[in-house]
């Protein structure tokens, strides 16, 4: 099927010269006075300009979030997908499109979860099984590496949360083209929490094959004291089994979710 060479079948296009001008004018004073920036903008890749401009030119403004006195986020939606634009306010020049490192450090915020209005509590789920008379409170899957995700939580009898927990649960989910943790030597989880290493051995393993994809699960109990440490940690790294390819590092957002989990349970 023939497609217009200008819009590639999308029905719209970006005027390169006009957008370059807007791209420059939207930037902060700190960005524009940096030597070499104007020449760099002039050589911007056209396809990249289209990707940046499309949510604004063809989409619609969804919402705006003020993070502090000098930083804000605008959310744009196009074809059901959110795009985020970061803004910085200069005292003498007003609001401008944020650019690191010219405009200083960016504040930590819930906007980093990737959609408007997101909160750490959005990533905690609770489920009651009336047949087992059991409640499970856990994080949603935390993607920590390609094909590797973690879930932490607790289980208790009935609907009433205990005053204290002794144990929590840790689950590892792996998706790959072949078996990764088939041998028992790999049935372990090592966590480096703020420089202190803790290992959990003999996790229970399960696995299935579906259309050429292998899904494996490792699960086992961990002390609730360890979950509490995870919830207050500033650095969390780990490894599943003895496979160097199964190493991971939890992001700040992951740590926020773990902190929210512990807060809800205590």
Describe this structure in words.
This protein folds into 2 domains: 16-105, no CATH class; 120-265. Helix 5 packs across helix 6 (252-265). The protein has helices at 16-25, 29-32, 37-42, 46-57, 224-232, 252-265, and strands at residues 60-66, 71-78, 81-90, 94-97, 124-129, 134-139, 142-145, 148-157, 167-176, 189-193, 196-200, 204-210, 213-223, 236-240, 247-249. Strands 5, 6, 7, 8, 9, 12 and 13 form a 7-stranded antiparallel β-sheet that branches. The protein has 266 residues and is α+β, with helices and mostly antiparallel strands. The protein is elongated and about 60 Å long.
Detail the topology: elements first, then pairings.
Layout: H1 16-25, H2 29-32, H3 37-42, H4 46-57, E1 60-66, E2 71-78, E3 81-90, E4 94-97, E5 124-129, E6 134-139, E7 142-145, E8 148-157, E9 167-176, E10 189-193, E11 196-200, E12 204-210, E13 213-223, H5 224-232, E14 236-240, E15 247-249, H6 252-265
Antiparallel strand pairs: 1-2, 2-3, 3-4, 5-6, 6-8, 7-8, 8-9, 9-13, 10-11, 10-14, 12-13, 14-15
Helix pairs in contact: 5-6
Q: How many helical elements?
A: 6
Number of domain units: 2
- Extended strand count: 15
CA radius of gyration is: 24 Å
* Uncertain runs: none
Give the biggest beta sheet. Answer: 7 strands, antiparallel
Structural class by sheet pairing and helices? alpha+beta
Distance between the termini: 60 Å
Shape: elongated
Order of helices and strands: HHHHEEEEEEEEEEEEEHEEH
Estimate the mean pLDDT confidence: 89
Share of helix, binned:
10-25%
Beta-strand residue fraction: 35-45%
